[in-house]
Amino acid sequence: MIMIPEEWRQRIRYHLDPLLAAGRFFKLRRGWDPHVPVFVFQMGKVASSSIYNSLYESYPGIVVHDHSFRAGHPNLWVRKLHRWYHKAEKRPLKIISPVREPVGRNVSAFFHNFERDTGVPYREHTFSLEELRTLFLENYPHRIPLIFFDKMEKHFGIDVYAHPFPRDKGWRVLENGRGVELLILHHDLPDPQKEKIIGTFTGLSAFELVNANVGRNKVYAHTYRDFRERVKLPEAYLDRMAGSRYFRHFYPEETIRQVREHWEI
Fold first, then answer.
1. pLDDT reported for residue 189
2. What pTM does this model have?
């Protein structure tokens, strides 16, 4: 077996991926592809990159990954999927949307978007943890997880909040009656369980997750860890997150209590 260096693999994939994706969309439009497209539609920082990359390598149909779904999207493949989906009624589509408790998710996203929300690149910053706390509270768009599932009803006709979610189980599949299936799952379910759930949902008998875009491997990992361990957040902020429809729909009271206890002053 010939072993190809990872650097070469990335270069090959960089040039081949657009051609492969274009070919798959061509087959889909012509009705030649029997595999239902998969859209990893998520709010960011919910372990979706691992799901997408793993599905991209193993699923024989189209796999698209993004935070929004619109005709004028800058991502060519989102635009193509949007156009195909709206071409006719009852187009089949499999959607995967991981969820994460909103406080930890927002902190993770703040560090991921460090330069955007602080005004300086991470390597150049001299902020104390207290200053980072202030920047987080004042600059980060905290509503993102709280309103994300409003998009699901708008785009796909699924009112997520109209259906009970098994909070202790941590996952459920919903349908819109017109060919769309939506898998919602807790981002922190054990990998073997996620592999089984996603594999069953997509029809893959041997699906395996490969972790990607993990915060502890980033350049900001040390500061991110200190922030999570040492910073406390205002009661009003925690009240807003804990009282949100999003948090209360997807997570049990015990999780909400634990999150509050971790972050409260």
1. 97
2. 0.89
